[in-house]
Amino acid sequence: MRLIGKLxxxxxxxxxxxxxxxxxxQTPPAPTRPNIVVIVIDDAGxxxxxxxxxxxxxxxxxxxxxxxxxxTRYYSSPxxxxxxxxxxxxxxxxxxxxxxxxxxxxxxxxxxxxxxxRLEPGVTTLATRLQAGGYRTYATGKWHLGHGEGDLPIDHGxxxxxxxxxxxxxxxxxxxxMPYYRDAPWFEGRARAEMPANFYSSELIVxxxxxxxxxxxxxxxxxxxxxVAFQAIHIPVxxxxxxxxxxxxxxxxxxxxxxxxRWRRAQELGLIPADAPQAGTHAxxxxxxxxxxxxxxxxxxxxxxxxAMLESMDQHVGRFIAYLQSRGLAENTIFVIxxxxxxxxxxxxxxxxxxxxxxxxxxxxxxxNLGERRSYVFIGPEFATATAAPxxxxxxxxxxxxxxxxxxxxxxxxxxxxxDTRAFVTDITPTLMERAGVSVGANETIPLxxxxxxxxxAGQSTSLRGPDDVIGIxxxxxxxxxxxxxxxxxxxxxxxxxxWRLYNIASDPGETRDLSxxxxxxxxxxxxxxASYAAENGVLEMPPGxxxxxxxxRNAMAKQLEHYWWALAIAAVVLLxxxxxxxxxxxxxxxxxxQ
Length: 595
What we know:
This protein has helices at about 1-15, 60-65, 80-90, 95, 125-130, 200-215, 240-245, 255-270, 295-325, 355-360, 380-385, 400-405, 430-435, 455, 520-535, 550-590; strands at about 35-40, 70, 75, 135-140, 160-165, 185-190, 190, 225-230, 335-340, 405-410, 415-420, 425, 470-475, 480-485, 485-490, 500-505. It is an alpha/beta fold and about 600 residues long. The termini are far apart.
């Protein structure tokens, strides 16, 4: 299998691939501006990477963390498309047009300003800015920012691209992963891509990026921007068997044990205060001891696949770095590695009917081949809570578990060490713009929301925002506002109750002590600040009774009707014909005989 050979090559080259340039490297003239590689992990919790205390073997990412800046207080949106829109534009998601995702949007919000679910006119991507500044620009992997006319990467500053415009897909073949999608919508340039019948997503994403760069060798004196957006570790969680086997026994003690282990490790690494109270777990989550032995084995194996998928991704990251090194490009490259949001709780859709959908689409969930071709793997909300430690809850919610994610930046002009200053996803674009020497155009009407971290990364400053500056977040009514050490937060059902709470997030990262009663003036002040943020950015209130699981079911059903209306029409015609025949037969049967 090609994958095994490539991974073996990575292991063999691991001693030198991280910027120990070999004598055989071909060194083109170094551009005066840095190359830029932005790597997005899908649904990685704050402590999933080994550099943050996780169990997965990620030596290539670890090496970048050791020689670069490792952020401990970096925040993103709790949902994938809004995060990616902010990452690529530096603008609040509501101003980009991508304030949520089509799978969860209520009917009342569809098409409203900020809720068109595509990058709206006037929104400028980092790729567009860099392209205008003389950069070659490439994108491979997950896009999820629209595939209508004018919505694909090639329309937003990328010279070459192979992207998936969906929230996820199978990793072994071009197959849908949920009823909302008929298939896996991969696009190359502006056309639907002809995908190989068999592949592995992390391998394919890196392969295609290397192919694009190889095709542009004649322009290698120009700097490049590579946007590498992995499917790892989004559902369905899938990985090669040999890597999954390397984690045998590690997760057998269950989710409570893993959560406590991650919490202790975060304290040992200094990621949280040593005396910070541990976050509780939601009342609806199941105790490990109550699970049947067969279910325990299935979930423990699922976490093995989860770790193996991260390890596989890291190996392909290493392979890409080795390629850049072979061309003499690695030394002048800034690497950005982050996650779009916290871990996926992945109780897939409303449980009713999902098992049948899996069967119809050829998926199984059996321990014998878990994570392999046609296998559907999710870790569930209990293990998601564990991988989000030290935060509370997970993806979609604005608790720390949903928005507090890893960020590593390494490269020229970036000082090695830990950065404890709070930063936000919109800060990435202005930072890279400054390093690349590009500026905001004179006629742009949508201002950047983020701030450049260039001086912070260079060790020339230790702050990014003042004590009164705020950061606002909102997705589907789940809202948060940060100011100084404090966080105002509200989460909707099913895992929230719609009530505002106030926390000192510096001393209480698990959000265990609500200060709204003890600090009424501060509470009121931050509520007013959130109201201002919502008004300025066009945040819409959620319809009464909104429930995300029911909304996903409704939207998926509507999409199924859109995809298969013709089949329903044929079925209706056939049914009417059968009824008419029955009517005719019955009429003849009971018609009085003529004398």
